[in-house]
Amino acid sequence: MSYRILSKRQLAYKMKLFEVEAPDVASKARPGQFIIVISREGRERVPLTICDYSAERGTVSFAFHEVGKSTKELGTFEEGDRLLSVTGPLGNASVIARFGKVLCVGGSIMTAPLLLQVKALKAAGNQVTTVMGCRTEEFLFMREEAEAISDEVYVASDDGSVGEKGLDFLNELVSGGHYSRCVAMGPVVMMKAVSEITRPFNIPTIVSLTPVMIDGMGMCGVCRVTVGGRMMYGCLDGPEFDGHQTDFEELIKRQRVMLPEERLSSLLWEKSGGCKCEKG
Ligand SMILES: Cc1cc2nc3c(=O)[nH]c(=O)nc-3n(C[C@H](O)[C@H](O)[C@H](O)COP(=O)(O)OP(=O)(O)OC[C@H]3O[C@@H](n4cnc5c(N)ncnc54)[C@H](O)[C@@H]3O)c2cc1C
């Protein structure tokens, strides 16, 4: 099976979007699901959320932030290169129905897969407000795409260099917005903050969790999360969960468990030349 990269787009610094040939995945993919990519022999499994798919073209798209060895190496792949494997679709699809008014909040790289949900929610007859969160103006991407598919778009940056400064403005937005649902995809701290903002208004809030995951099929149990006091598997039960019931503190701690090893592995890879081809 060939997993050829058909297009590579630079979204922002260290953030890339690939469209890859993967007809088996494309024929079954739904918004909210993810894939596991292995770039080449001997490399680790990288779970990534599906950003788009076309059963007709037999393609899936995914966006990634180069945060460590595996994603940095993936970023060196070019159009025409082949990935060793793309497994999926994995996890449960998002619930897409006619909810009424939906607030979709994206942060950092996860804004890319969020837009697939925005599209599906619009097609289901919802009125959609999209919030695009980024660190600074340089990290804002796909704004035109978001504007083309949303009823309204807000931009927020950590430093206020573009749009609103931080997410505090969401308090005002949700208090008068009559939203019947919120979907948040982004860094865990951001999803936690959004869930706290919507909680007093009883707006059902769906978050897409990204615990450290290995097989993505429920066998290893590494991606355990606690939701509503119950242990769940991020891969089998998720990746989407009720943000008001999620134990975010535990998730943050578990995400950091391998930090020293991850840093070392990234450093060693960069020292070796940081190229996808074998170095002596
Ligand atoms: C269901 C799911 C969907 C995801 N979707 C996206 C996406 O669309 N785009 C994107 O950029 N990232 C996504 N991630 C996170 C992505 O998988 C990690 O950033 C990537 O595996 C890091 O690997 P690394 O070697 O580059 O970094 P490392 O240096 O190994 O790790 C950097 C940080 O990434 C996290 N991480 C490391 N390994 C894993 C792993 N196997 N599974 C999950 N997190 C890990 C940890 O918090 C770690 O501290 C998703 C994760 C999950 C579980």
What does this structure look like?
The chain folds into two domains: 3-90, Elongation Factor Tu (Ef-tu), domain 3 (Beta Barrel); 101-255, Rossmann fold. The chain has eight helices and 16 strands. The chain has helices at 23-26, 69-74, 111-123, 143-149, 169-177, 188-198, 248-255, 259-271, and strands at residues 3-12, 15-21, 34-38, 46-54, 59-65, 82-83, 85-90, 101-107, 127-134, 152-157, 164-165, 181-185, 205-208, 224-227, 230-233, 240-242. The strands form three sheets. Strands 6-1-2-5-4-3-7 form a seven-stranded antiparallel β-sheet. It has a seven-stranded mixed β-sheet with strand order 11-10-9-8-12-13-16, sandwiched between helices. Strand 14 (224-227) and strand 15 (230-233) form a beta hairpin. The longest helix is centred in the middle third of the chain and has 13 residues, at 111-123. Flavin-adenine dinucleotide is lined by residues 34, 46-49, 62-65, 67-71, 109, 113, 210-213, 234, 239, 255, 259, 262, 266.
